[in-house]
Each structure stands twice: as C-alpha cells, then as structure tokens.
Specification:
homodimer, Rossmann fold, alpha/beta, globular
C-alpha cells in the first residue's frame, strides 16, 4: 500500500478522484483548503468523503492568502458570481490567481513530510479553456518543480497524479459511478445555498455531465429546469 | 517604474534584496510569511524594512501549513535547533518541506493579481548544500510553472528574480553595504532571544559573511566569541 496526498474540495471531481484512488488500493491523506471561498459548505463534503474512505483529513487555513488574491468572484463578496456555461469567457472572473500552484505546493510539502509517493489533483479537461493551471503542461511543470525542489527529501520518482486531466467531466461521472461514488455527497454550486442553484457555471456543468454520462443525477437543484 | 513582489523574512538576505531592488528603481510589494516559526521576531524587521522603503507590506498567515509540515527544528518546539555551521549535514533538520515553493506560489499569486512583472527571492549559493529549493534549477522550475500556470493572466515575460542565487552570503553583505542597508535592522538567529545567540547555524554564517566581506558587523551577539 502506498500513500497518496490528495486535494479534496468536496466537489464532484475531487471526491470521485479520492474514491478512484482508494479503489486502486492507495492509502490516502486528504487535504482541503479554506481560502475564504464564499461557501465553506463544500469542506463538509470533503470531511465526509475522507471519513467514508477511512482517510486522515486536514483543512488548511489559507484565508490570509485568499484576502490578498481578492478580485475573484469566488473570494470577493463584491464581485457577482456569473451565470451561464462554465467554459464561457465570463467565467474568467472566477479565476483565483495561481490557486492550484498554491494548493499543490502545500500538498507536496505534506507529501514530502509524510514520505508519500505522490500528490493527486482532480483537474480535468473541462477546466482547460479558462484555467491555465488545470492543463497538462501545468501539471508537468508542478511535478518537475516538486522533484527538483525536494531532491533528497521526496521519495524517488515522486509524482503529481492528475488522472482526469485529459478527460471531460461526464467521463469523471462514469468513472465515479463505476466505483460507487455517492454523488449526492458532493457539492459543486458556486453560489452556496441550501441546495444547488442549478444556474451558476458549475451547476450547469454538473447537470450536463450527468446527462452526457447517462448516469442519474441525484442532485436537488433550486432551479429544476435545465436551460442550456 | 515596475512592480516587483518580493518575499521578505526580515533576515539579512531578503532585507538586502529589497534594498537592492528599490535602489534599482522598482516599486516593491513586500510579503512575509508566518508559518509558525519559533520566533515571529524577524517579521518585525520585515515590517520596518518595508516602511523604510515606502513599500506595501503583507504578512501571510501560513501557520496552518506549518503545523502540517512539523518535524523541522524551525517549526517544532520538540526538535532542538542544532549548533554549528549552517552548511553541515546536521542542518538538514532545519528543512521545512517545500517551503520556498509554498511561499513563492503565494507571491506569484499576489503578483498576478496586482499585475506585477516579477517576484523576487533572496535564495543564495550558501543555501545550496542543504536546501534543494534554493538552487538555480529550482528557481527556473518555479518561473516555468508560474508562466504556464498563469498564461493569459500574468504579464508577458513574467519573471522569478533570484539575483543572489549564484553568490555567497559575504557578497550579499558587500552589495548591501553598497546600497546602505542598515544591517542592524536584520535578524538571522534561529534561536530568537533578545539578541542574536551567535552560535546557531545562521548566526555562525552571518558572522562569517561580515568577516569575509570586510564589512563591520553591527550585530550584538550573546556569545561574543567567534568559535569557528
């Protein structure tokens, strides 16, 4: 059994990743980040995911970082969360500068401290149009930096795993269904009400993914009608 | 005038770097990190450095990260700070896994959010034997990752400046003297008493640097006698 440090936001992608890694026989250490996102709600989903999988779980407080990176709709209450499709140009406002590099650098630090063989991230192909830090070239750059920066301290052949980097979200849903992910125990909505709003970028993307995958969507949406 | 985000610990190297960058005509945004190091004292020196240079200053709270990376003598009160020369193998216990990657990833995020042209770090040649994240190959890897991960958001030709990466600490002292750095307003000691202990790794390295540079050392040491 090998140890993998995986970042878990509580969203569909990262929870599915944790289940897939566990199904492959890895021991997991789950790390979530509080960077002052509008809703801390998804962190509860991350906690329950770790508990289900018998994994150690830590929430890293990066609120101080989030404050400095304000101006994104995800952290700044003065910026409105845009509606519409996730891949639209309007979603650029949801970019938190260098977010994945920051979270992965912490995950790598934890992995090195614990002697883990890898870190894992659930970035996927649907993120590529807007978020440069979700693309394959970025993952390779992070792995390269992690190995060089921790030479002699990280395990030999240390890796940054991103098994979803080349696949769209509907394929993630298929893979999650195959390992029995309880999708109702994942949170996507950027708005953060009692139930998923059904209209923000990630809600639209979530509904579409279940639809394309042909997997029943157990999510309760405030706006039940699909408009795209 | 161009904006540079520079990491300032309050130590001799990073304070000198800030002064050198300011002398070169850059506008500075200084960022310090609290990762739960034994002494928060050096952060006061960083604050005063920023104030002297008329620069904006932020202290980023990474204590939550420090807790997860414990086991280093710099963050864990149960681990004794080793005495002796900084380059000795015993100093490996002062390694905080992936520390520079974490701090630089935050600095890059701030730089992208503010439209800065570069981040800067005071890593130097004397750090190379023990700390892999202070070597030229690491700096290049960070710059590469920063550009790829912020494509379309960072300014064109974004850089990670590490002007001291190829020089020893005594040359930093010479360069600092040339731009009038008030060295007494810098803090090196890992022990963190009222005055520099004079015996820990960084104190030994500090004294040696002034000696080799032929620059008067204004530092008050608890142990006035140089033993190495």
């Amino acid at each position: 059994m090998s140890l993998v440090v995986t970042t878990v936001s509580g969203g569909l992608d990262s929870v599915t990743l944790a289940h897939v890694l566990a199904a492959e026989g890895h021991d997991l250490l789950c790390v979530s980040f509080d960077y002052g996102q509008r809703h801390a709600k998804e962190v509860d989903y991350a906690k329950r995911c770790a508990a289900r999988l018998g994994a150690e779980h830590h929430v890293v407080d990066l609120r101080s970082v989030g404050t400095l990176l304000s101006g994104s709709a995800l952290t700044d209450p003065d910026v409105e969360v845009p509606e519409g499709h996730y891949a639209d140009a309007s979603m650029a406002i949801t970019v938190v500068p260098n977010r994945n590099a920051i979270m992965l650098s912490v995950a790598v630090g934890v992995a090195v401290a614990r002697g883990a063989e890898a870190v894992a991230t659930a970035v996927h192909a649907g993120d590529h149009p807007i978020y440069p830090d979700c693309r394959p070239a970025f993952i390779e750059a992070v792995e390269r930096e992690a190995r060089i920066g921790n030479e002699g301290f990280a395990v030999e052949g240390f890796r940054v795993l991103a098994p979803f980097v080349g696949i769209p979200k509907d394929e993630i849903v298929r893979r999650g269904a195959a390992v029995g992910v309880p999708f109702v125990e994942t949170w996507s909505c950027y708005v953060g009400g009692d139930v998923h709003c059904g209209r923000c970028g990630t809600c639209v993307e979530r509904r579409e993914a279940f639809d394309l995958a042909g997997v029943p969507d157990p999510t309760e949406y405030a706006d039940a009608e699909v408009t795209t």
